[in-house]
């Protein structure tokens, strides 16, 4: 993810402009504030899955999340606040705080709606008056993006690119004729041939599975209760209830089996 969008500034600029609905010609400059593609821990357990940017003097963080977390809404707000506060240097006035935008690209469903794009800002509840434009938290839910390709919907094209799993899907996106999408597909092909990047991706996937709280989330959703029921009433019946709950929350069959086998 990070390699893809930091390899070519024109691709990155188009990606950010389309997700934020900003005309590309209005973006004067995009700087990557954390360009390094290195393991985040000394043990090399995972690669960073976020890109922190300066876009026209705004702070923008783009993050992709693979697995659901029970407290993800709170987590998103917490990391936005850390970014927002981190821009104010000691002795500076509050007016110097920059507009801070958090973009969360999720491989799971977070909200009970069919719309794949959600934007949250600070509004008065009756008048809908904006308190400040300095807070924006955006969510893009990949599982809600359908497979129909529309070259005029650039936002959707980028999400389909991130979602693509086969060469055929990538080629179809390239055939749209959108220049930056085509460049991104070429970069992805190059990445797939890079053994080092593949190894880092494997390290990242392992860390995600180990550290992203799948066991805790499943416990909150009733897995332990289901197992207890399974012992008393029959394991099959107990696990059936658990499986139904996890499916409803957007877990894949592979993820469910991994949880049950853990």
The pLDDT mean sits at 81
Distance between the termini: 28 Å
Q: What best-fitting shape do the alpha-carbon axes yield?
A: globular
Major beta sheet, strand line-up: 1-2-3-4-6-5
Radius of gyration: 20 Å
Strand content: 5-15%
* Low-pLDDT stretches: 39-48
Helix count from the secondary structure assignment: 11
According to DSSP, the number of beta strands is: 6
Describe this structure as you would to a colleague:
The structure is a single chain. With 262 residues, the chain is α/β, with parallel strands linked by helices. The protein folds into two domains: 207 residues, no CATH class; 48 residues, no CATH class. 46% of the residues lie in helices and 13% in strands. The chain has eleven helices and six strands. A six-stranded mixed sheet has the order 1-2-3-4-6-5, sandwiched between helices. Strand 2 and strand 3 form a beta hairpin. Helix 2 crosses helix 6 and helix 9 packs antiparallel against helix 10. The longest helix is centred in the C-terminal third of the chain and has 17 residues. The two termini are 28 Å apart.
Write the SSE topology.
Elements: H1 2-6, H2 9-19, E1 30-32, E2 50-55, E3 58-65, H3 72-86, E4 100-106, E5 117-120, E6 135-141, H4 154-163, H5 167-174, H6 179-192, H7 195-211, H8 214-220, H9 223-233, H10 235-248, H11 253-261
Helix pairs in contact: 2-6, 5-6, 9-10
Q: What's a concise summary of this model?
A:
46% of the residues lie in helices and 13% in strands. The chain has 262 residues and is an alpha/beta fold.
């Amino acid at each position: 993810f990070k390699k893809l969008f930091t390899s070519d500034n024109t691709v990155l600029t188009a990606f950010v402009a389309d997700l934020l609905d900003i005309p590309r010609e209005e973006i004067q400059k995009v700087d990557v504030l954390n360009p390094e593609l290195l393991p985040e821990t000394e043990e090399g357990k995972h690669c960073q899955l976020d890109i922190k940017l300066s876009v026209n003097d705004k702070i923008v963080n783009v993050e992709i999340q693979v697995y659901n977390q029970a407290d993800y809404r709170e987590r998103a707000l917490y990391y936005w606040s850390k970014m927002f506060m981190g821009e104010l240097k000691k002795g500076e006035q509050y007016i110097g705080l920059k507009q801070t935008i958090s973009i969360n690209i999720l491989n799971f469903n977070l909200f009970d709606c069919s719309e794949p794009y959600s934007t949250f800002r600070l509004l008065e509840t009756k008048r809908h008056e904006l308190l400040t434009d300095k807070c924006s938290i955006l969510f893009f839910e990949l599982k809600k993006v359908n497979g129909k390709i529309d070259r005029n919907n650039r936002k959707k094209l980028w999400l389909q690119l991130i979602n693509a799993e086969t060469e055929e899907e990538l080629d179809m996106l390239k055939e749209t004729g959108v220049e930056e999408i085509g460049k991104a597909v070429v970069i992805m092909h190059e990445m797939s041939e890079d053994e080092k990047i593949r190894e880092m991706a494997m390290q990242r996937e392992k860390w995600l599975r180990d550290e992203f709280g799948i066991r805790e989330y499943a416990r909150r959703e009733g897995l332990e209760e289901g197992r207890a029921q399974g012992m008393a009433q029959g394991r099959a019946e107990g696990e059936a209830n658990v499986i139904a709950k996890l499916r409803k929350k957007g877990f894949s069959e592979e993820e469910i089996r991994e949880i049950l086998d853990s």
